[in-house]
Amino acid sequence: MKKRIIAVAIASSMMVTGCMENDPNKRAKIGAGIGAVTGAIIGNNVGGGGGRNRFAGAVIGALAGGAVGHYMDEQARELRRALESELAADYATIERLDMDTIKISLSSEASFSLDSASLKSTMKPALNRVASVMGRYNKTVVYVVGHTDSTGSDSHNQGLSERRASSVSGYLSGRGVSRNRLYAEGRGESQPRASNSTHQGRKLNRRVELFINAVVAGRESHASRSPY
């Protein structure tokens, strides 16, 4: 049932996007469409009503719908400046997924030793800068999601991905990001970015992703939605 709900939501999102190729208001409408369909996913990914209640009061105020794009644009620019050296070294990537979502992907090689969930000291200054930006943009919630390659058993990889996500989330919390804004989970080897049959593919698959979601007034889904 969960997979069917997610599939319908994704299909609906694609339909919204596909109908607006020549629409000058495309960006705003795509953001609204994605916000509408993600409501179908809420209870399946973030613990139902408990998840909604947890995140509903997690931020100071909420954004009006028309202010979301500018707010997230500014936050993305600050994050790119904060992670300039990590971006140049391919230790991190930053993407805008839609109007109200920023995705940061951190290389596990740069963040953790082999089979370890303890953060490397070399990544901590970067996370300090990320936490500082998040502190200034406090009308957001943050999903920290861990991933592994397929080396090792499913259960081992799932546990490792969870521990690494928790490690990053805990570090951000210790640097001033309210724990009520943070949600950590692991996806193990289930969502690879590339083939696990090559060294480069496995390297890409070992990562921790941060999904920064704006909390929008009147749209509870954005205060509690999972990135998937």
From TrEMBL:
The keyword Glycosyltransferase does not apply. Keywords: Cell outer membrane, Cell projection, Cilium, Flagellum, Membrane. Gene3D superfamilies: OmpA-like domain (3.30.1330.60). Residues 99-216 form the OmpA-like domain. It is found in: Cell outer membrane. The gene is ompA2. InterPro entries: Bact_OuterMem_StrucFunc, Gly-zipper, OMP_bac, OmpA-like, OmpA-like_sf. One of its GO terms (cellular component) is cell outer membrane. It comes from Solemya velum gill symbiont. Residues 148-170 have a biased composition (Polar residues). It holds the Pfam family OmpA. Its main location: membrane. CDD domains: OmpA_C-like (cd07185). Residues 147-173, 183-202 are annotated as: Disordered. This is Flagellar motor protein MotB. The keyword Membrane applies. PANTHER family: LIPOPROTEIN YIAD-RELATED, STATOR ELEMENT OF FLAGELLAR MOTOR COMPLEX.
